[in-house]
Amino acid sequence: WSHYNIVQAMKSAIAIPVGFDTDVNGAALGEQRWGTAEGIDTFIYITVGTGVGVGGIIYNHIMHGLIHPEMGHILIPRHKNDTLKSVCPYHENCLEGLVSGPAIEKRWDVKKATDLEDDHEAWDLEAFYLGTAIANWILTLSPKKVIIGGGILNKKSLLDKIRKNVQQELNGYVKHKIILADIEDYIVLPKRTGESGLLGALALAEKAKEV
After folding, report:
1. Which domain holds residue 83?
2. Residues 185-196: pLDDT tens digits?
3. Residue 191 lies in a domain
4. Average pLDDT estimate for 163-192
5. Model pTM?
6. 115 assigned to some structural domain
7. Is the Cα dihedral 152, 158, 164, 165 positive or negative?
8. Alpha-carbon dihedral angle through residues 116, 117, 121, 122, given to the nearest 10 degrees
9. Phi then psi for 207, rounded to 5 degrees?
10. Less CB within 10 Å around the terminal CB: N or C of the chain?
11. How confident is the model at residue 1 (pLDDT cuts 50, 70, 90)?
12. Structural domain contains residue 34
């Protein structure tokens, strides 16, 4: 499907407006319309599962440019104790290659990442990488909220570890109350877990109809 104009093909076949975007951008739209980001015009939505996807909404517009942003593949400094060979075939130290479900399973030789106990060191390493990435996105995009979901976030102990690592990485540089004192309201889980993408598809369809 590379370089194939699927949107035009669908429009020609069914003769109705067609909205088309990435799954994570759709999920971000779903959370903005009916979820945690309702009423917020600038935020990011992160999903961590078989891969890592990030959708950015800036002043109510989905971030697009030369390509759709691939923030899951940002290059990240390795933890000094991490010797994993990245599971990403393109990058040896990108976020997805180090924190996705397949990366966790390969690093710790388990069948399912979330089977690891809450106190396993895997989650400290996961929080180190995700906290570093989120700190960079905060400094770059200045989101008003950070939503993070996906299968790996079913490990309930992980979210607080990520929040603490974000604060450590920022080290007081961003002097905003929500980061310094109310980070539990800033880095949050999605409200529409399991439904965000579907709801986002509805929102995309509405936008396509308006054009």
Report:
1. 6-198
2. 999 999 988 888
3. yes
4. 95
5. 0.93
6. yes
7. negative
8. 30
9. -65, -40
10. N
11. confident
12. yes
What phi and psi, each to the nearest 5 degrees, are found at residue 61?
Answer: -120, 135
What is the largest distance, in Å, between two alpha-carbon atoms of the chain? 56
96/78 Cα distance (integer angstroms): 12
**Six-digit token pair at 209?**
């109809």
pLDDT of 211 over the 70 cut: no
Residue 18 belongs to some domain of the structure = yes
Measured distance CA(55)–CA(64) in Å, rounded? 10
In angstroms, the Cα distances linking 171 to 91, 132, 135, 202 are 28, 11, 10, 40
- Mean pLDDT over 17-46 rounds to 94
Q: How many whole angstroms separate alpha carbon 203 and alpha carbon 62?
A: 12
Mean pLDDT confidence for 28-35: 95
Alpha-carbon distance of 138 to 169, in angstroms, equals 11
Instruction: Give me the pLDDT at residue 97, please.
Output: 99
Pairing of strands 146-149, 187-188: parallel
Cα separations in angstroms, 105 against 28, 67, 84, 101, 113: 27, 30, 11, 6, 5
